[in-house]
Amino acid sequence: MPDSPLRIVLPIDDPRNQEIQRRVAAAPSDVTNHGGPVLANVQCTTVFLGDAWNQAPFSSLRDAFNTFLDDYLASSEFTNLSVYGIGTGSRIGTLTTTDALGSTVLDSDLQAIVTRLTASGGQIVPNANTLLFLFTPQGTIVDATAIGAGQTCTDHCGYHNFVGNVPYAIVPYLECSGCLGSGLTTEQSMTSVMSHELCEAVTDPMLNGWYSSTGEEIGDLCAWQETSVDGYTAQKEWINGQGCI
Description:
Elements: H1 15-26, E1 32-33, E2 43-49, H2 58-73, H3 76-79, E3 90-97, E4 104-106, H4 107-118, E5 130-135, E6 141-144, E7 150-151, E8 159-163, E9 166-171, H5 186-203, E10 210-211, E11 226-229, E12 232-235, E13 238-239, E14 243-244
Parallel strand pairs: 2-3, 2-5, 4-6, 5-9
Antiparallel strand pairs: 1-10, 6-7, 8-9, 11-12, 13-14
């Protein structure tokens, strides 16, 4: 039994993706809960880091990501997660910060932003269903080596984690080939990553919830298998007893 789940979106060309798919095809195995909580009625806030998100063309992407999240939370794809104890969810807010991240940002820096936003007197009042989505700007690499998630494009295309009792998901700006699904645009790849990390964060927010005996969460078992939600690209997720849907 692994000590902790995978928690990241592997680049599409990462050999671990192929190994996971071979294992799933040979011996499908449902995920189990390891004693941890879920976000039963998730309340999402999207956080766009840096003023670039207020400028064209990124402002239109920001609006699209918010619309996609609204639509996905109201979709049958999200309702499928009821098998894991997940009920309805919503996006309760969005904000764009003035944080200047530079070419590389550490996960510890992102944790500090989450802590600042959710501290007493901060812009977000957290509760047991809070999930923050953090979007980094174009040209910023996220270095999450300290938590075992490596760097954007080389090792991951997004991931989720928590600081204190607050779960967060990281969605980097994706332009590298390893994080652009076959034939997908930056926007489509990022909405795919959003759905992957949303579903994993609600079912495994503290990294002790739902995952397989070999450490894969419900998105990992179906990585880069795409579907459509209201015209947006989303990833299929593993549903116990049904597989990737």
